[in-house]
Amino acid sequence: MSAYLLASFAERRPSPEELTALTQLCFASYQGVVLPTSAHTAWFTFERPGFRPELCQAAWDGGDLVASLYVTRARLDVGGCTADFGLIDTVMTHPLHRRRGLARAVLERACERAAQAGLAGLLLYTQPGSPGFSLYQSLGFTVVASLWHWLREPMDGGAPGAWRRLDLTGQYSMWALLLEKARARYEGVPVPTEDLWRWRALRGPLAPQTAAWVHPDAQEPENLLLARRSSLTGGAEATVLKDLVLGPNAPLAALAPEIGREIPLLAVVDRQDTALAALLRGACFRPLQEEAIMLLPLSEPQVPARLAAAERPWFPLVESDIGV
Ligand SMILES: CC(C)(COP(=O)(O)OP(=O)(O)OC[C@H]1O[C@@H](n2cnc3c(N)ncnc32)[C@H](O)[C@@H]1OP(=O)(O)O)[C@@H](O)C(=O)NCCC(=O)NCCS
Prior knowledge:
The protein has 324 residues and is of the alpha+beta class. It has 9 helices and 13 strands.
């Protein structure tokens, strides 16, 4: 360990090219993840609202980046309170430098810095049973939500129904209303800002592949969703559905043939969200793999108890295109 330099991105910032090369090396063997280009990394990391270089951490071996993680500051509604959390993602160590404590060291630094910054807690998404999972557990993270990835193989279907594709420009207030609706039902809903909307819907290399669909029969912005087409490891493509705040009778089975004729559809949904699971089943989706959301409370130690008492499903953000 002593040969390595540990530094935040504020102290020594890796380039998008260095981060991209390490991400590709570390995540290529994962099934169904988005492998970034440098433009994608620059957008996902440095241009993301809430990017805090002093919280993101890296390990260097001389001039080589050998481990890193990102932390984004995000204002979320959790357990009845609105607070600033740190979202950790893309935790990775170069294969030749593994099992030397680097991931643990960068995570410990991230936890320390996040506590100093007054964050309520740190959140991350990971697969139960993965090497990362036991590492996070050993640092005090616990599972606060269990998710399923749902997949729908491409197929023709019946009539596409009345869903309409919207131009994303100028839809911020619709999205803000959608999140308002989500807050009544879900945990972990972000506080909407125009900046966040622009970043996730209108900017970045995948923005041209992002569409919003709305069902005009809905009186309220309940039947709106985003769909983003992404290239995944193994040469596959999938359209990832985001921001699913659907009413119990949402005609999802009519939308699926419209956008899922040629490539698979993917959705990430809390296991407790039985209403949405029923809609997905009705639209020919099937559960594919599990994912867990883990939390390390910092300035708000009572968050896990409040979450357990609320018994509400989590609103998966699906911001991280790594592992969708
Ligand atoms: C997961 C990963 C970041 C671990 O990096 P690392 O620097 O080797 O981890 P560390 O040496 O700090 O190990 C810390 C702990 O992680 C766990 N761990 C790490 N690698 C493991 C493995 N292959 N199998 C089981 N547990 C493992 C162990 O609990 C370990 O503690 P120990 O060494 O005291 O037993 C690295 O294997 C990696 O980059 N994997 C591919 C990308 C990835 O899966 N990222 C996590 C996404 S959520």
